[in-house]
Design brief:
The chain contains seven helices and four strands, in the order ααααααββββα. It is mainly α and about 200 residues long. The strands form two sheets. Strands 1-2 form a two-stranded antiparallel ribbon. A two-stranded antiparallel sheet has the order 3-4. β1 and β2 form a beta hairpin. It is globular. The relative contact order is 0.16.
Amino acid sequence: TYSDIAGENCEGAVNVLTALGVVDGYEDGTYRPDTIVSRAEMAKLVITALGMESYATATTSSYTDMANAQWAVPVVEYATNLGIINGYGNGKFGPSDEVTYEQVATMNVRALGYTTDCKEMNGTYPAIYIQKATALGIFKDVDGNQYGTGANRGDIAIMLYNALDVPEVYADKDGETHNKRGAYNSETKDYDKVTMMSTLN
């Protein structure tokens, strides 16, 4: 429980994500929901939400501007390799730049498997990702969704929380999108859908 989120829109999401080890607060007992998140910080959040932080082990970066963000090299490289994030196209990632709402939406959507390998995602950026994020309910209850502006810790927690139970997908060789399948469920007589939540638990 943080001292500055009681009654806030993000309270439930922050508490759940804290319990899951995805987000944490500050030493003074606050969460600071209005603090804007950087692109490097967002890379860490999305990889942690996927339960894959232990796989992020890179020590060198494919980007030329990570010298002042060495702590983020492993997660940024791993997220890049998974197709979740891209740089600016000039060899730079901009780790300290504010992450915008459309970038957060894009990272969430790609983390769920909706990458450019899926034919349905071959549209204009960021519109195609905003459209998919909206359809998946990732923007539900998000207060400050202003495209082109920096996303804050409270809204990002809500977006990650909304993505937890969304089924992850993959693209087949023809670019068709399919739900990932987990263990066989004898009660439902079907295979469970894989979600971020199932990965974290």
